[in-house]
């Protein structure tokens, strides 16, 4: 009888933790930390993606489209290139998420998340860039936390400012 109680307690604990990890507030915190990490340490940010992540990015740059299709290698390369370009340009960035929705279902092992990401990039000699993307991602619960399982991102540059 005690084994059954222990088993039930473990299941309840696991489901409760899963429910918490995939809550809107925790997912928003995870995404904010991931975005900050991508700007500071893109190699570490790559650890937030599952090994079998599926990626589709189509961003308008003002001079054409930047498209990324593939898996973990492609998204990690994209993050590294973006961070390197911002470093070379000595750019300051700020951004936030709007219209965040998180949809989960029992047993809270994954969530479908959608949001608009608004970013402003200030470059001393080149001016500024404002962009807005719509992102739809799937996040799954792992034994150690959360992992991004798919990324679909569209949108891009809204405006260019002169220095």
Structure in words:
- The protein is of the alpha+beta class and 163 residues long.
- Helix content is 36%, strand content 48%.
- The protein contains four helices and six strands; from the N terminus they run H-H-H-E-E-H-E-E-E-E.
- The protein has a six-stranded mixed sheet with strand order 2-1-6-5-4-3, with helices on one face.
- The chain starts with a helix and ends with a strand.
Secondary structure elements and their pairing?
Layout: H1 2-21, H2 24-40, H3 42-46, E1 49-60, E2 65-70, H4 72-88, E3 92-104, E4 110-123, E5 127-142, E6 145-161
Parallel strand pairs: 1-6
Antiparallel strand pairs: 1-2, 3-4, 4-5, 5-6
Quick structural gist:
The chain has 163 residues and is an alpha+beta fold. It is built from four helices and six strands; from the N terminus they run H-H-H-E-E-H-E-E-E-E. It has a six-stranded mixed sheet, covered by helices on one side.
Keywords:
about 160 residues, alpha+beta, six-stranded mixed β-sheet, about 50% strand, elongated
């Amino acid at each position: 009888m005690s084994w059954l109680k222990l088993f039930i307690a473990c299941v309840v604990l696991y489901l409760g933790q899963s429910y918490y990890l995939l809550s809107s507030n925790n997912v928003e915190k995870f995404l904010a930390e991931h975005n900050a990490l991508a700007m500071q340490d893109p190699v570490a940010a790559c650890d937030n993606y599952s090994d079998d992540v599926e990626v589709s990015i189509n961003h308008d740059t003002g001079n054409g489209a930047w498209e990324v299709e593939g898996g973990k290698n492609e998204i990690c390369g994209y993050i590294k290139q973006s961070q390197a370009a911002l470093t070379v340009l000595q750019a300051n960035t700020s951004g936030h998420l709007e219209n965040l929705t998180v949809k989960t279902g029992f047993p809270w092992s994954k969530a479908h998340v959608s949001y608009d990401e608004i970013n402003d990039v200030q470059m001393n000699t080149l001016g500024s860039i404002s962009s807005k993307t719509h992102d739809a991602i799937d996040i799954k619960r792992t034994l150690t936390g959360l992992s991004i399982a798919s990324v679909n991102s569209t949108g891009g540059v809204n405006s260019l400012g002169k220095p």
